[in-house]
Design a protein that fits this description.
The chain has helices spanning about 15-25, 30-50, 55-70, 80-100, 110-120, 125-130, 135-145, 150-160, 165-170, 175-195. With about 200 residues, the chain is an all-alpha fold. Helix 2 (about 30-50) packs parallel to helix 4 (about 80-100) and helix 3 (about 55-70) packs across helix 4 (about 80-100). The longest helix has 22 residues, at about 30-50.
Length: about 200
């Protein structure tokens, strides 16, 4: 299968994840500014794809910076984008659940959560994934085996809840290619989890 490659114009130049994480460990407030510079758009998009509300999404993004500041240290994430996107996603999920109680219209989140949540949590609870260090390590291990394009699909589809069409547009490929890659990523992750006694 032809490897998906991210177009160069989509890759931003800034501090590396490890350099930003070092700033958090030094308790340097530049860590938040650099996180916003590098991943602010991602965090907003994660929340907006779930909530479809600009103000709520901005609040989820800002809450994510606060929670990252309080989590690093002791955490030292290898993939800062996935780490902060998960925080923003959990913030938005809490608001989403509240909106669903009020019978508001669901978003693209419904599809992507149904596709992936069973692989990411042992009990179907998104909070479990956040708290389960062993499972996080397995997912981080899996991410290191993926190409840059595959990681983009993983984060875009299963963390950010982007549509297949949006991801395909960013990568410059057909949506059917993204769908095939997403299915392969899910299948391989499921195999890894089952080899480590996470049965789904």
């Amino acid at each position: 299968m032809q490897e998906v490659i991210i177009k160069k114009e989509n890759v931003k130049s800034s501090l590396s994840d490890s350099q930003i994480v070092d700033l958090y460990w030094q308790r340097n407030e530049d860590a938040i500014r650099e996180t916003d510079k590098q991943y602010g758009g991602l965090l907003f998009r994660v929340a907006y794809n779930i909530l479809q509300d600009t103000q709520d999404s901005e609040e989820c993004k800002n809450d994510a910076y606060f929670k990252a500041w309080n989590s690093i240290p002791p955490a030292r994430p290898l993939h800062l984008a996935a780490f902060v996107a998960e925080i923003s996603r959990n913030n938005a999920l809490n608001r989403y659940k509240e909106k669903m109680r009020k019978k508001r219209v669901p978003s693209e989140l419904t599809v992507s959560i149904d596709e992936m949540e069973e692989y990411l949590t042992a009990d179907g609870n998104p909070e479990t994934k956040h708290l389960n260090g062993e499972l996080k390590d397995l997912i981080n291990q899996y991410l290191t085996t993926l190409s840059e394009g595959q990681r983009y699909i993983f984060i875009g589809r299963f963390c950010v809840a982007d549509t297949l069409e949006d991801i395909a547009g960013e990568l410059g490929v057909h949506s059917s290619t993204v769908q095939r890659e997403a299915e392969r990523i899910k299948r391989n992750l499921r195999n890894l989890l089952e080899r480590n006694d996470y049965y789904v």
